[in-house]
Design goal:
Layout: E1 2-4, H1 12-20, H2 28-47, E2 52-59, E3 62-69, E4 73-79, H3 83-92, E5 97-106, E6 114-121, E7 129-133, E8 136-137, H4 141-154, E9 159-167, H5 169-178, E10 185-192, E11 195-196, E12 202-203, H6 209-214
Parallel strand pairs: 1-10, 4-5, 4-7, 7-9, 8-9, 9-10
Antiparallel strand pairs: 2-3, 5-6, 11-12
């Protein structure tokens, strides 16, 4: 239940290359759009796993039977870096409900921190299909904390899809150890990089996704 998109060559490779390229990263609009486009591709791949039922659609010349998704989808994202990826999902799941949660590294140093959650806005998740989008799966601690917080507050989804752009083995392992990827969830990620450095950033990665999307923070 782990899908890594770049194990097969596709246009995802081009978008990843531009996201990583320091000569391209200065264009924040282009950076956000490339994350958004990967979100659209992830949306399409996830859509193949949903439940469908036939529906009659009236055309000017007759009636067409079309299989349409029946899942009630909730799109959740982790503020702030997750917003462009979230928009990519929303472009495809345009009638989905939405959830937002803030999570950030809180600690004395970049390498020594806990995950702080300060804001949650979500509909009921009971029996629905939850998609949690966050571009970087580094330590995996934020994703696990957000998943557990959403379920504790808003109910248990029928299934959860965890979606990221770039991850690393440490982050994937954290998700595997704390979220049931055999029964409750599926992990979707565009690529998995080599390792985390001493400051818990993905190498080679792309840097700080939030800063590259929206500018540096204090």
């Amino acid at each position: 239940m782990i899908h890594i998109l770049d194990t097969n060559n596709s246009l995802v490779n081009s978008y990843l290359a531009q996201l990583r390229d320091t000569t391209v990263q200065g264009d924040m609009l282009r950076f956000r759009r490339n994350i958004e486009r990967i979100g659209e591709i992830l949306s399409y791949e996830i859509s193949k796993t949903l439940n469908y039922a036939p529906k009659a659609v009236t055309t000017p010349l007759g009636t067409a039977m079309v299989n349409l998704p029946t899942d009630n989808v909730v799109l959740a994202t982790i503020l702030r870096a997750g917003l462009p990826l979230h928009q990519g999902f929303l472009n495809y799941f345009d009638s989905a409900e939405n959830a937002f949660i803030s999570a950030y590294r809180k600690g004395l140093t970049e390498a020594d921190f806990t995950i702080a959650l300060e804001y949650v806005a979500s509909p009921s998740l009971e029996g629905k299909t939850l998609i949690i989008a966050d571009p970087m799966l580094a330590t995996g601690a934020s994703m696990v904390a957000v998943y557990k917080e959403l379920i504790a507050r808003c109910g248990k989804p029928a299934h959860t899809h965890i979606a990221s752009v770039i991850g690393c083995p440490e982050g994937v392992k954290m998700v595997e150890q704390n979220i049931d990827l055999e029964n409750d969830a599926t992990l979707w990620i565009a690529t998995v990089d080599e390792y985390l450095n001493e400051n818990k950033y993905i190498v080679p990665g792309l840097g700080d996704a939030g800063d590259l999307c929206f500018g540096p923070k204090l």
